[in-house]
Amino acid sequence: MKSVVVFCGSSKGRNPEYVKQGYSLGKTLAQREITLVYGGAKIGVMGAVAEGALKFDGKAIGVIPEFLKLREVFHTGLTELIVTKNMHQRKLKMHELSEGIIMLAGGYGTLEEFFEMLTWGQLGLHQYPIGILNTNGFYDGLLNMLKTMVSQGFVKQENYDMILVDDTIEGLLVQMKKYDPPLVPKWIKKEQL
Predict the structure, then answer these.
(1) pTM greater than 0.90
(2) What gap in Å lies between CA 81 and CA 60, rounded to an integer?
């Protein structure tokens, strides 16, 4: 992977471990020469990931919609800042710039971005590894809900298995490197990937 999109909160959360883990992920990506693609904010876990990458001479590309840039929450020291017209264009641009997906602690927006990318993977529109850095068990409840969806027949086991989960950066990156995507459905044409 040459680039990874990271979805995470623009808030810090109540446990300082979320920000610390975000900074460490940014640092690790920089040290492995993996470009960080993220939401462009200077605040919260998002800002920590960017700072970790930039302090260790990594590349950090922010993608932010105009209305959020106007609120002055964007990071001014990024390698590149891409401004989109809306949230939909933002996600599409993040997808185009990345070769992997990692979700850290966050709120509604984090979940929405993650699940859209996961759905695109399920449909065969990309074959990127999709990971959750499960700091302090933050996503345990979500993972249990997804298992319920599998047991109740709303999600196929193979689609649940697309989600790589670890509570360490190293463990997650190892899984992502070894990721073997499911076969692309026959009805998907190669030019759609």
Answers:
(1) yes
(2) 9
